[in-house]
Amino acid sequence: MLSSIPVRENQPKSCCFIIPLNILRNYARDTSLSSQARTKLQETFAETGRLRMIREANRIASVTYRRSVVSAAEEAAVVQQELFDCRQRQSLPGRPVHNPDSSPNPDVKTVYSVTANVAEFYKSILNRTSVDNQGLDLVSSVHYRVHFDNAFWNGQQMVYGDGDGELFVEFYKSPDVIGHELTHGVTQYESGLQYEGESGALNESISDVFGAVFNQWLNKWPTNDAKGWLIGAGIMGPQARAKGKTCLRDMVNPSAAHCLSPQPDSYKNFDPSADVHENSGIPNKAFAQFAQGVGGNAWDRAIKVWYRACTDRRLSSTAMFVDFARLTIDAAQKEGLEAPAQAAWQSVALPL
Amino acid sequence: MLKVKIERRGGLLGKLAVGELEEAALTPGQRQALDKLIKSPPKPTPSPGADRFQYKIRVWDEKGEHEFEVPEDSMPDELAVIPKVRL
């Protein structure tokens, strides 16, 4: 469950390491040592790396942010990234990838460049600096576990599996998926919507909304382009495509047969026992309707209304659909967009 | 004769995946991983963050039926591949 405050608050603020990382790594590769000893050293290396990352994240998160004293140079600073390769193992974050921006490995380069694009989207469209709005380094790990059919945010970083090659291909191959995972970090630092029931479905919907609009912005797709509302279109494997499944979810038409995981598209069909990814179809459709009602590009006006609601201090971690809907209508009103916002929530039969 | 059924929920997809195997179909690695989990089931607390998998394992053996929840971080690779999404 996501907490209402950043997860890092509950973790050690500082820790020290007696053996430098490079020494651990060198010994782990020393073939004169037994394989058991090398395995232990490798595990220690991996865990130490993880703890260092947490320590650094805590350090940055603990810096008091005072907008008034932030210099122009700091404002303009590019969000830094750290990229790791798990090499099909389970330990996170994995082996560090140095200079990922110039890596000859196309997987690394894709994750690095698309993550940079997401950070740029948040900065240029929403004036947000990284997930915490304080410039926190973005950490990603690729090649997690074996044939792993998932991507996730673990409270600290993004993690991408390679897929099984049949149902799914590599999970970083859909830009909206990278935007989706990073947005879970944003939600964690803002409302901390709890990961169950209506608040959990809102948490998931917010990740789909910002992931989809990021993808539209990246590809210059206007709101009437159906491609821009598909979630996970780039990660569908040959087996799924052969069965006519072209995406995980379709925000315009959540119950469509071409979705691998069809969702309810009306509050009348809300299922309290369902997974948070199922009920998220309801607010997903509301946003798609709103953006199309506003017209043009979703990143010009519609997403700014949703962002204002997501970062509104009145949005609690246990918010219901109606609470969030009222905040979006409130935000839309300030932009002269109240009518399409009202119509959007009416389209999913949400009583306001 | 042992039988295992594994259900997977959650993940970015959020769709139920199910897999069932008889003892003879389990690889030695899967059998070893399963025995280890039966002997010492992990805490069922879901893994932190969002889009994480949560597994439910049911085992039928000579001692009866065992059922336990396994969060993604505690699920061995050998067993994680068993549940499949039905298209």
Describe what you observe in this structure.
The complex is a heterodimer of chains A (352) and B (87). Chain A is α/β, with parallel strands linked by helices. Chain A folds into two domains: 16-189, Elastase, domain 1 (Roll), CATH 3.10.170.10; 197-346, Neutral Protease, domain 2. Chain A has helices at residues 21-28, 35-62, 72-76, 106-126, 175-189, 197-219, 238-242, 276-279, 281-294, 302-310, 321-334, 338-347, and strands at residues 81-85, 95-96, 138-142, 151-153, 158-160, 230-231, 249-250. A five-stranded mixed sheet of chain A has the order 2-1-3-5-4, covered by helices on one side. Chain A has a two-stranded antiparallel sheet with strand order 6-7. In chain B, strand 3 and strand 4 (64-71) form a beta hairpin. With 87 residues, chain B is an alpha+beta fold. A five-stranded antiparallel sheet of chain B has the order 4-3-1-2-5, with no helix packed on it. Chains A and B meet through strand 4, helix 5, helix 6 and helix 8 of A and strand 5 of B.
Give me some keywords for this one:
heterodimer; A: 352 residues; alpha/beta; Elastase, domain 1; Neutral Protease, domain 2; 5-stranded mixed β-sheet; two-stranded antiparallel ribbon; 12 helices; 7 strands; 44% helix; globular; disordered N terminus; B: 87 residues; alpha+beta; 5-stranded antiparallel β-sheet; 5 strands
CATH architecture of the largest domain in chain A: Roll
Termini Cα gap of chain B? 30 Å
**Total number of β-strand segments of chain B?**
5
- What is the overall shape of chain B? globular
Name the strands of the widest sheet of chain B in spatial order.
4-3-1-2-5
What is the alpha-carbon Rg of chain A in Å? 21 Å
Output mean pLDDT of chain A. 86
